[in-house]
Amino acid sequence: MIAIMDQNLPRKLLLGLTGGIAAYKVAELVRLLRQSNIELQVVMTEAACRFITPVTLQALSGNTVHTDLWDPRVANNMAHIELSRDCDGIVIAPASADFMAKVANGLADDLLSTLCLARECPLLIAPAMNRQMWDNPATQRNVKTLTNDGVTLLGPATGDQACGEVGMGRMREAEEIFAGILSYFAPKILAGKNVLITAGPTFEAIDPVRGISNRSSGKMGYAIARATLDAGASVTLVSGPSSLAAPLGATLIPVVSAAEMHRAVMGNITGKDIFISVAAVADYTVKQPSRSKIKKSSAALNIELTPTVDIVGQVAQMPDAPFCVGFAAESDNLHEYAEAKRRRKKLPLLAANLVQSAIGGDDNELILFDDDGVHPLNRQPKEALARRLVEHIANLLARRLTTRARTTKKSNKAKT
Ligand code: C5P
Question: pLDDT tens-digit profile of 352-384?
Fold first, then answer.
């Protein structure tokens, strides 16, 4: 994976660990944050050190781990102030019930709680505790106080707990906490916008076991859904078959065939400001799929195919069409085919990539085509590319809305 400096990511975070079995998940969180070039200052409570060692976190974060309020190595013996001063935020994971109670009540009797009280930056907390501790009215009171004080809670999640019980209170997975951190720091450039996104492949049945599909993992579309949510939009994701989990916060509409995707899009397009058509929709479907499995024989088999509806093309033709973004995967003549496709489908923006570099992998490179010309986006992780694309969409949309407002003002003036 290629790491690229991203100005929307936090530059440095203070990561605090308190005592909880979920501490082992933090090793993965540290890896994800470091992979995104986010510098980390790890601070652990005494109880946290019983679950995972400072040596492990020192090795993973690449920085000295602090545990002691009285550490003489920190400037002026002021560890409780100095350690968070150059950080963009403090993230506590796992956050025990006891630690949350301390922060909610302004207690400061160890390095981490003192850092939280003396902070000048945002505080994000990933709770981790037994379900009864979570449900306890005292914890719920503390949750309310923390939220009122502007603290952001990342979780908890529900499910199996280390104690053998099942319920609310387990710490979110590392990937979810990582996504929550990125989401918190992302600029809300699409706040209030409603967005419909298609992703993944479609599957056109030949018989009950066979079918025609396109190679698409759904990674790019799901990353765009995540970036759009992080930018403050409401997101509906119409997805063909994919093994990926839908981004937290998106409304998922699972579909299989191109016809189902078409129905789901047309049924949900009203009121949408933006339509991003990332799905690799089958261009042809089977005219008459067999109800029973077709028996193998040595004779040639002919299957009649009929064209599917061009979903993005149809949406773009609507009288009050949302801002439509198309995708194109080409094996050659990328520029020529992509721009021709954009004009044919009447799309204000089209993102094109070479099939050789795009399918299945974690990285990609995109070329954006719009009325201003061509904008190449370098090879980078699909998540980072998605953020660049969302920025581009937000800029074009803002410009379109300003132009429309000016035109309306002018025509109103002409009428009076
Ligand atoms: O024409 P082509 O399939 O290459 O166009 C790709 C773009 O059109 C993608 O944005 C894809 O999601 C969209 N598309 C569609 N409906 C189809 C075929 C493609 O919306 N039936």
Answer: 998 877 676 788 999 999 999 999 999 998 999
**Ligand 1 pocket check for 218: Cβ under 6 Å:** no
If one counts every other C-beta atom within 10 angstroms of the C-beta of residue 109, the result is 9
Region 207-211: mean pLDDT is 97
The answer to whether residue 75 scores a pLDDT higher than 70 is no
Cα–Cα distance between 280 and 413 in angstroms, integer? 46
Are 328 and 352 contacting, i.e. CB atoms less than 8 angstroms apart? yes
Burial of 69 (0-12, 13-18, 19+ CB in 10 A): middle
Task: Kindly state the tokens that stand for 269.
Answer: 């397009």
Distance 348 CA to ligand 1 centre (A): 15
Longest distance between any two alpha carbons in the chain, whole Å: 86
Q: Which residue, among 45, 15, 39, 36, has the nearest Cα to 27 in the 3D structure? A: 15
Torsion angle defined by CA atoms of residues 102, 108, 113 and 115, in that order, rounded to the nearest 10 degrees: 140
Q: What is the DSSP string of 8-38?
A: TS-SEEEEEE-SSGGGGGHHHHHHHHHHTT-
CA neighbor of 45 nearest in space, from 80, 20, 18, 82: 18
In angstroms, what is the C-alpha Rg of the chain? 25
- Does 277 contact ligand 1 (Cβ within 6 A)? yes
Indicate the pTM of the whole model.
0.86
Residue with tokens 């489908």: 345
pLDDT band at 85 (very low <50, low <70, confident <90, very high): confident
Contact 320, 364 (CB under 8 A): no
Residue 324 designated active-site: no
**What integer pLDDT is reported at residue 2 of this predicted model?**
42
Counting ligand 1 atoms within 8 A of each CB, the residue from 260, 265, 277 with the most, and so the one to mutate, is: 277
- Please pick, among 49, 121, 163, 324, the residue that the annotation labels catalytic: 163
Q: What is the dihedral of CA 105, 106, 109, 113, to 10 degrees?
A: 100
Residue 281 Cβ contacting ligand 1 at under 6 Å:
yes
Is ligand 1 within 6 A of the CB of residue 370? no
Query: How many angstroms separate the alpha carbon of residue 279 from the centre of ligand 1?
Result: 7
Q: Are 68 and 39 in contact (CB under 8 A)?
A: no
Best mutation site among 215, 216, 281, 337 for ligand 1 pocket (most ligand atoms within 8 Å of CB) = 281
